[in-house]
């Protein structure tokens, strides 16, 4: 049972090619429903891991890989099925993509793996992004929701980028984000004095 969250993350990862095919074929509704199922598995695997202490490095990596893959396939689906988001609102979308790409690429370079910080701001941003995407695919485009989500996602991306630049070794599930880093640095400097 201890590996159940990892199995759920792997199933979510396996849904990515199916989601890509659905987006490519224009199956808007089927894409949206499978995306809902993937979102439920994301909530479930995290809850199980925390509730029963089934947290592992492999689980953090699988969860991050699944999250990034889902986000990439959602971006592709948005481009394929709702490209007005990119065409008319690119000033909010492109900076988010750049900051998160930098954070992940630098993390891969520095740690030889995805950062997997799972900060509170990243979780809030991902949930808002999920809400925006579900509203987009089920009801249509809501600009204010994109902008609200965009601000949070951009700030979370900046936080992740700063963490990647400031933390020397890979540390998954850094819930407190920048506050945790400041506390650790303050504690380290006071103990060395």
Explain how this protein is built.
The chain is mostly helical and 193 residues long. It has helices at 4-24, 28-52, 57-81, 84-111, 120-138, 143-166, 178-192. It has 2 domains: 1-81, no CATH class; 82-193, no CATH class. It is built from 7 helices and no strands. α2 (28-52) packs antiparallel against α3 (57-81), α4 packs parallel to α6 and α5 (120-138) packs antiparallel against α6 (143-166). The chain starts with a helix and ends with a helix.
Structural class: mainly alpha
* Beta-strand residue percentage: under 5%
Largest sheet, in brief, is: none
Low-confidence stretches: none
Secondary structure layout plus pairing:
Blueprint: H1 4-24, H2 28-52, H3 57-81, H4 84-111, H5 120-138, H6 143-166, H7 178-192
Helix pairs in contact: 1-2, 1-3, 2-3, 2-5, 4-6, 5-6
Q: Can you give keywords for this protein?
A:
193 residues; 2 domains; 7 helices; 81% helix
Task: State the gist of this model.
The protein has 193 residues and is an all-alpha fold.
